[in-house]
C-alpha cells in the first residue's frame, strides 16, 4: 500500500492526489511513521523498538528549571506517565487551579491556560453544582427514579457515581496531580449548568465490575489502594452496563463520566493514571450482549497502548487511534503507523500518529474524513466506543494541541452514523478543567 495524502492545514478541502488510493482495512506494514499536520504519507518504513519516553517540547521540569535545560539522563525510562511531580524549585511559584501547571510568583495569569491565580474556578456560576458534595447522595435516588421514568431510545444515558471521586493521591503533594477528582466535578457541573444532566439525560445505577468480567483482561497482580480500586471497579462497571443497555436498544448512546481513565492499562499492568481498561471492558460487554464487531476510536492525545495490546490479535475489534507520537518521543512511545495488529488481527489496528504539537480541528476532521470513516464504514461495527480523552483540547497542559469543543462535537457527529447510532463515549484524559468541561458538554449535546 503506497499513497500520499497532502492537504493544507487551514484548508482541508484540498484533497488527496490522484495516485493516492485508500485501502480501508490496513493490512500492509509499509506505512510511514508520522503525520506532520501538513502531509500524511502512507509509504516508507521506520526503525522498530525506538520508544523513548522523553516527550518533545516543554515539560513541567523544563518550565521550572532555572537554567531551562533538560538532560536526557534526567528522565526515568521506567516512569509510567508523562507527568512528574516537582521535587525541587527554589523560586516562589503558584499552581493553577484550572490546569495545575506551575507559574512564577510575579505573573497573575497561568502561562499555559490563562487562568487568573486568584480566581476560584469552582466559585464561578458554570461550576456550581451538587456533584461531589454531600447533597448528591440525597439526590441520587430521585435522579435515578426520574431517569428511569423518562428513559427512551433517543435519550443519552450517563454513567456517574460520586464514589469515583474518592480516588486520590495517597500522599498529597504541593503540586496537584493533573488526574484529580475535580475533572469529574467540572464536567458534571458544566452538564448541569447547560440543563443536560440531570435533565435531558438518564442516569444508570452504578455497580462494581465482577471479578470474572475483569478476568478476561487483567492479571491478578494488578492492584491499587482501597479507594482507587473501588473507583476503578465502579468505572469499569458503568462502562460495561452502558454498552449492554445500548446493545439492548434501551438507549441509543451513552456517556461514561468516569475515572480513573483506562486506555493505558493492558493485560498485566496499570500505568499512565489508568487502572482498568474501561473501553476494553465495554467492548467485551457489548460482544456478550450480541455485538459481533466493535469499533474503538481513541482520540486521547496519548496512544492507548493498553487497548492496542488487548485487541491487536483480535479481528472482531477494530482499534483506531489518533495521537501525538513524535517518532516515539511522546508518551507512551507506542502507536507508530507500522503497528497494524498481529496474527489474525493484522489490519485491525490503525494508528494515526502526529509528529508535532499544535494539531487542531482541521487536522482531526481531515483524518476522520480520509482515514477513520472509510475504514470504519467498511468494517461495519455493531457499536462504536470512543476513548474520549480531552487532552488534545486547546489549553491542555500535557497535550499542547488545539482541538476545540466544536471539533470534538463534529467528530462525535461523524461517528454517530457508523454503527446505526449505537455510540458509547468514555472519558479518558484531559487536565484543563475548563477545556474538558466545555468539550465534554459539546459531545453530550451532539
UniProtKB/TrEMBL annotation:
Superkingdom to which the source organism belongs: Eukaryota
Protein's GO biological process: epigenetic regulation of gene expression
Keyword Transport: no
Keywords from the named record: Chromatin regulator, Hydrolase, Metal-binding, Nucleus, Repressor, Transcription, Transcription regulation, Zinc, Zinc-finger
One example GO MF annotation: zinc ion binding
Protein's cellular compartments: Nucleus
Primary site of residence: nucleus
EC number(s) reported in the record: 3.5.1.98
Residues of the RanBP2-type domain: 94-113
Needed cofactors: Zn(2+)
InterPro entries according to UniProt: HDACs, His_deacetylse_dom, His_deacetylse_dom_sf, Ureohydrolase_dom_sf, Znf_RanBP2
GO cellular component, one term: cytoplasm
Family: Belongs to the histone deacetylase family. HD type 2 subfamily.
Name this polypeptide is given: histone deacetylase
Natural source organism: Vanilla planifolia
Amino acid at each position: 500500500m503506497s499513497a500520499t495524502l497532502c492537504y493544507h492545514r487551514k484548508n482541508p478541502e484540498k484533497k488527496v492526489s490522484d495516485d493516492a488510493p485508500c485501502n480501508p482495512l490496513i493490512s500492509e506494514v509499509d506505512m510511514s511513521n508520522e503525520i506532520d499536520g501538513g502531509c500524511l504519507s502512507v509509504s516508507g518504513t521506520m526503525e522498530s523498538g525506538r520508544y523513548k519516553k522523553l516527550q518533545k517540547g516543554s515539560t513541567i521540569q523544563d518550565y521550572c528549571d532555572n537554567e531551562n535545560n533538560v538532560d536526557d539522563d534526567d528522565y526515568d525510562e521506567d516512569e509510567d506517565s508523562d507527568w512528574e511531580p516537582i521535587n525541587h524549585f527554589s523560586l516562589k511559584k503558584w499552581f493553577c487551579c484550572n490546569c495545575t501547571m506551575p507559574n512564577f510568583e510575579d505573573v497573575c495569569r497561568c502561562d499555559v491556560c490563562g487562568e487568573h491565580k486568584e480566581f476560584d474556578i469552582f466559585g464561578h456560576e458554570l461550576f456550581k453544582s451538587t456533584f461531589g458534595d454531600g447533597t448528591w447522595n440525597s439526590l441520587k435516588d430521585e435522579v435515578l427514579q426520574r431517569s428511569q421514568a423518562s428513559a427512551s431510545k433517543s435519550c443519552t444515558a450517563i454513567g456517574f457515581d460520586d464514589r469515583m471521586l474518592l480516588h486520590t493521591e495517597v500522599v498529597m503533594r504541593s503540586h496537584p496531580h493533573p488526574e484529580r477528582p475535580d475533572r469529574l466535578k467540572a464536567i458534571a457541573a458544566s452538564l448541569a449548568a447547560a440543563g443536560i444532566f440531570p435533565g435531558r439525560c438518564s442516569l444508570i445505577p452504578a455497580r462494581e465490575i465482577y471479578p470474572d468480567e475483569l478476568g478476561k483482561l487483567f492479571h491478578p497482580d494488578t492492584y491499587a489502594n482501597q479507594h482507587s480500586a473501588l473507583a476503578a471497579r465502579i468505572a469499569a462497571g458503568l462502562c460495561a452496563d452502558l454498552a449492554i443497555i445500548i446493545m439492548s436498544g434501551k438507549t441509543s448512546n451513552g456517556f461514561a463520566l468516569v475515572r480513573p481513565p483506562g486506555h493505558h492499562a493492558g493485560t498485566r499492568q496499570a500505568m499512565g493514571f489508568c487502572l482498568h481498561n474501561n473501553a476494553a471492558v465495554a467492548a467485551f460487554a457489548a460482544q456478550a450482549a450480541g455485538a459481533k464487531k466493535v469499533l474503538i476510536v481513541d482520540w486521547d492525545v496519548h496512544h492507548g497502548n493498553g487497548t492496542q495490546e488487548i485487541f491487536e490479535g483480535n479481528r472482531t475489534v477494530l482499534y483506531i487511534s489518533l495521537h501525538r507520537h513524535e517518532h516515539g518521543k511522546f508518551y507512551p512511545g507506542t502507536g507508530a503507523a507500522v503497528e497494524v495488529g498481529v496474527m489474525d488481527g493484522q489490519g485491525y489496528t490503525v494508528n494515526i500518529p502526529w509528529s508535532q504539537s499544535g494539531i487542531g480541528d482541521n487536522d482531526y476532521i481531515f483524518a476522520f474524513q480520509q482515514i477513520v470513516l472509510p475504514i470504519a464504514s467498511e468494517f461495519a461495527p455493531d457499536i462504536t466506543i470512543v476513548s474520549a480523552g480531552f487532552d488534545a483540547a486547546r489549553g491542555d497542559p500535557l497535550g499542547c494541541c488545539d482541538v476545540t469543543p466544536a471539533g470534538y462535537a463534529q467528530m462525535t457527529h461523524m461517528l454517530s452514523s457508523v454503527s446505526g447510532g449505537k455510540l458509547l463515549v468514555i472519558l479518558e484524559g484531559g487536565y484543563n478543567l475548563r477545556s474538558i468541561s466545555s468539550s465534554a458538554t459539546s459531545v453530550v449535546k451532539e
